[in-house]
Amino acid sequence: MVDKRLENVNLALDNVRQMLNTVNHGSITLIVQNSYVVQIEKKEKIRLR
Question: What Pfam families does this protein map onto (predicted)?
Fold first, then answer.
């Protein structure tokens, strides 16, 4: 049980790290159910000057 949770967290963190390299302005949201990350959402803003 703990191994599956740890694997889930590590997978989520790997995905978040990759997303952080691609987002200039925006947010990354983790959706958690029953102590498992079930969804990762990336919202990016485009700033016009």
Answer: DUF2292
Q: What is each CA distance from 4 to 17, 29, 40, in whole angstroms?
A: 20, 21, 18
Rounded CA separation 42/15 (Å): 11
Compute the distance between CA of residue 10 and CA of residue 8 in angstroms, rounded to an integer: 6
What is the pLDDT at residue 2? 74
Instruction: Supply the pTM of this predicted model.
Output: 0.81
18 vs 4: CA distance, rounded Å: 21
R_g over Cα of the chain: 13
Quick: pLDDT tens for 30-39. 999 999 999 9
